[in-house]
Design goal:
Layout (H helix, E strand, L loop, with lengths): L1 H10 L9 H21 L2 H9 L17 H7 L5 H12 L12 H9 L2 H19 L6
Length: 141
């Protein structure tokens, strides 16, 4: 038993005592400084070029600031997400959409067909009143 203990005792090594806190922190700072120095040295040629330049413009790629009208955006818009596709499908199938530059929608035409003649004239008068007011707000019938 003593022989086994002696053999294992010879094989095992003692761990070194840990370094004092201030020495280990200094070693970490030195290592991180070396890494940071490598990272910063990558940018030195760009910084030198910018310092020598007479004028700098940012961003380097100028964005396109051309204005688009709402009608162009609406015509070119296509639904992308599933929710947008469902909403577009519902709007397309609705009878309350103005199509082909008509004055009344399909739902309004059906409602007018169901009305009597006097109600039709009143309804058309009100619709024309609203349309004319939006075209020329000063002129009221």
């Amino acid at each position: 038993m003593k022989k086994i203990f002696a053999k294992t005792h010879k094989r095992t090594k003692k761990l070194d005592t840990p370094l004092p806190k201030f020495i280990s922190e200094k070693a970490e700072r030195v290592a991180s400084y070396a890494e940071d120095k490598k990272e910063v040295s990558k940018w030195e040629p760009i910084i030198k070029r910018n310092r020598k330049a007479e004028q700098l413009t940012f961003p380097l790629k100028q964005p396109d600031y051309s204005m688009q009208t709402i009608s162009n955006l609406a015509q070119n818009w296509k639904p992308e997400t599933s929710l947008e596709k469902q909403i577009a499908e519902l709007l397309e199938s609705s009878e309350n959409n103005l199509k082909d530059q008509k004055l009344l929608t399909q739902a309004e035409l059906k409602a007018i067909e169901a009305m009597n003649l006097e109600d039709v004239f009143i309804e058309i008068y009100l619709i024309l009143h609203v349309v004319i007011f939006f075209i020329n707000p000063v002129f009221i019938i």
